[in-house]
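User: PH domain-containing protein. Structure?
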Amino acid sequence: MSRALGVAAVVLFTGLAAFVVEQTVWDRLGFFVVGLAVMAFCEMQARVVAVPDERGLFVRNLVRRQRVEWAEVVGVSFGGGRPWVQLDLSDGDTLAVMGVQRADGERGAAEADRLATLVALHSR
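Assistant: Predicted structure:
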């Protein structure tokens, strides 16, 4: 969905650049660049993921990606109005997991529960 929105943004801004009259070449180029920037952001959003395996969890958010071992994770939070899962790490830091979002409704809650279960199983 996010990728389709990015392509739609490029088409929309390119259309604006082509059909809005009384623009300079730089104005038209600016519209196109804004469309590309929106598409790049949508692509970054589409690549957000959380992938568990036997050793730990790989988390790719909008800009940052990080791998955490199960032993580093001491808690999983999804309440309190948070938009996505938050991991409490053993060094006192926290890590947002944008791949599991409240906006996903029941699916997001189920994934948060699954992640909490994986943390509990691997922390024994």
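The mean pLDDT is 90. The longest helix spans residues 25-46.
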